[in-house]
Amino acid sequence: MEYVSTRGSAPALDFEGVTLAGLASDGGLYVPREWPRFSEAEIADMAGLPYAELAVRVMLPYVTPSLTEEKLRDLCQRAYGRFAHDAVTPLKQFDERHWLLELFHGPTLAFKDVALQLLGRLFEEFLSRSNDHLTIVGATSGDTGSAAIDAVAGRERVDIFMLHPNGRVSDVQRRQMTTVRAPNVHNIAIEGTFDDAQAMVKRMFNDAAMTDRFHIGAVNSINWARLMAQVVYYFASAIQLGAPHRKVAYSVPTGNFGDVFAGYVAAQMGLPIEQLIVATNVNDILHRALSDGDYSTGTVTPTAAPSMDIQVSSNFERLLFDVGGRDGLALAEQMRGFEADKAMRLTNAQREGAAKLFTSARADADDMAQAMRWASEHCGEIIDPHTAIGLHAARASDLPAHIPIVTLATAHPAKFRDAVERGTGVRPGLPSRVGDLFQREEAFSELPGDYDAVAAFVAERATPSA
Q1: 3-class DSSP state for residue 151?
Q2: Do 365 and 286 touch, CB atoms closer than 8 A?
Q3: What are phi and psi of 72, to 5 degrees?
C-alpha cells in the first residue's frame, strides 16, 4: 500500500513511513492511494472473529509490505489484550433501534486507547529496525493525551511531549496524563485553547530548525495508523447487527473528525453504512460546513464536553480531498486560504460528495443533559457528555425505522463525573483498574500560548534523531 498527501506535493510513503512521519512534509495528511475493498462474502466471513483477529483482517491491506500478517497479529493481540472487556468494543442495546458501542474499556477509559495501544507498539517495531529516536509532539483536548502517554510511557527510542489547554480538561483527564512519571513523558499546559495547541504541533512539523534535529512524530489522528485502527470497530459492530446483509447508521461525537472519518473509510471498504451522523456541541464548525458549506472558525466556547471544544478539525481535510476529486494541489490552495482567513466555502463537489454519506446535528447543554437523563431513566445506562451529544443526534435522526443507529460511546462516564452528576443525579465511580489516581502526585509544566516557548522546551529535552 502506498500513501499520498492530501496537498499533493509530499513524496508518497509506505505504511512504515507514514506511521513515523505523521504529518506530510507539505503540511497535508496522508491517505491511501486507493481504498481496499472487501466483497460481501469476505465481510460475512468475518462474523464471530475475536477482535484482534478481526483487526488483522481489516488492517492487513493497509500495512503490507511493512508488516507481515504474523507480525500484525502479534501486535494486535498484545494491544487488545490490555482491555478490560473480552469483546474490546462491546455493543449494548438502548431500545428497538438505538445501540451503544462502548469504546472505553482500554487502560485510560477512552476510545483513543483502541488505536493508541496499537500505535505505541507500531512505533517500537519500526524504530527498532532503524535504531532511530522519535520525538512525539501532540495536542490533546483531553483523551488523546492520556491514551498516548499510556501507550508509550517507558518505551525506548520515544519521547512524548503532550500539550493540553490549561484548565480546559477534566480533572480525571488531566491526572491521567500528569501522574505518569516515566522519564520520557513531558506534559505541557499551555494558555489558550486546543486549537492553539494543535496549531503549534502542526507548525513544529514544518519548522526546519526542529525537524533537522529531531525525528518528530504524531499521535493525534493526523497520523494515518491511528485512524486506520479505528476502522475496525465499525466492522465489529456492523457485522454484529447483520452486515453485510443489513445497513447500519452511526452517530459519532465529533471534534477533530478522525473517529467519524474512520467510518467513512469503512464504507469505502465495502461496509454497508447508510449514514454517518456528525454530532457536535455548540462549537459547531463541522455542522455548519456539512449543512451549508460554511467552514469558518469562531470563538471556542468551553463546555462540559471539552474534547469537542474545537474549531479546526484536522481530519476534515482528508474528507475534502477524497470527495473533492483527490486534487491535492487545488486542496493545498484551498487550505492555505483557510489558514490565512480562518474561513472558506466548500466546493460544490465537496458538499455533494460529503452529503452522500454524512449528515450532522448540533446539541447545546440542555440537549446533552436530556440525552443523559433519557439513557439513565429509560435504559439504565450512564453515559458521558460526549456520548450524550451523539445520542441526542441519533434520536433526532429521520432515518427509516428498520436501520439500526449505533452511537459511539467515546469515554467512560467517570471521566466527566461532575457533568454526569449534574445531568443524572448519579456520580459515576472510577473503575478499579484506574487505581489511586487522585492520590498520585502530578507533574506538568505551564507555558504561555507561544510557539517559540514550546519549541524551546521541546528542544531542551528531546533526544536528537540518529
Answers
A1: helix
A2: no
A3: -60, -40
Cell numbers 500495512: residue: 63
Q: What is the set of active-site residues? A: 112
Helices (H), 342-384: 348-355, 365-379
Would you list the domain boundaries of the chain? 91-110+224-424
Sequence-ordered strand ranges (E) for 307-414: 343-345, 358-362, 405-409
> What CATH number does domain 91-110+224-424 carry, 2.120.10.30, 3.40.50.1100, 3.40.50.720, 1.10.3470.10?
3.40.50.1100
Render pLDDT for 167-211 as a digit per residue (tens, 0 to 9).
999 899 899 999 998 999 999 999 999 899 999 999 999 999 999
Give the C-alpha separation, 11 to 5, whole Å.
Answer: 8
Q: What is the C-alpha separation between 274 and 242, in angstroms, rounded?
A: 13
Strand 3-5 to 30-32 pairing: antiparallel
Provide CB contacts within 8 A for 307, sequence distance 6+.
Answer: 141, 142, 143, 253, 255, 386, 410, 411
0.90 exceeded by pTM? yes
